[in-house]
Amino acid sequence: MKNLLLIIFLVGCFGYARATETEKIKIEKTLKFATPSPDNVLEIYNINGSLQIEGYDGQEIMVTAELTLTAKTQELLEKGKREMSLGVWEDDSALVLYNKAPFIHNQRVEGPCNCNWNWGKDVNYEFSFDFKVKVPRSVNLNVRTVNDGFITVDGMNSNVSAHHVNGDVTLTQMGGSVEAKTINGELLVRHTKAPTGGNSYYSLNGDVNVYYPGEPDADITFKSFNGSFYTDMERMEVMPPAWTKEVTEKNGSTKYKLTQKNNIKVGKGGNLLAFETFNGDIYVKKSK
């Protein structure tokens, strides 16, 4: 999944006492890839609000985004209406949706989205986007949001990457590989097929629940500081823990960090399933 978007948010502190003016604006768009291919990826980079994505047996991407603006005065609300919009960027293989405003700077790069906040500018209003999107099942997904709301994805047969910071991530009827991550929230993933390739599941402060049909042949790694690992898989073998070494160079000195991960072999082993949480439990179960 290349052709990602680097988004630099230059936003102000939303520290005013109480907003008195609110307006909701509905935005609808129908999009289509210029060149359909297995590499097509839909990317959504959101700041505040939920992402609800549904796979379907069609060709077009149907987007409904509700922009909510809140301000202390009507004048500031009108300013928000002039500044905030839904940005769309595209090339032959990627379609990118993002929050567009004068204080949000966008730059196309190769690699993941980095979100850098600069508190030197006072925006004077609050904003959020809540997305509801219907996507062809074969389109790869790379979706992000930061505050409020949740991420739900249902019925995709492609590669799905979903990251949240402050909210839950729920992925259901997943037929492809998954990379799911949240910092402060619960993580739930339901697979319809035995996973292929590498799959990773991470929550810093929350439980991780993942369901597979039957018992897939896989190599499982898991790590939790204040939690436990639970599974109802029967064809499993506990393997010796694995240690990884991270090397950092700073001020002419070298530091080494050793990290231990526990390993389980399910069936014949094979595809890697990586689980990690800090304050939470990990549950790996067979679908019922």
From TrEMBL:
Location of the DUF4097 domain: 147-261
Protein name: DUF4097 domain-containing protein
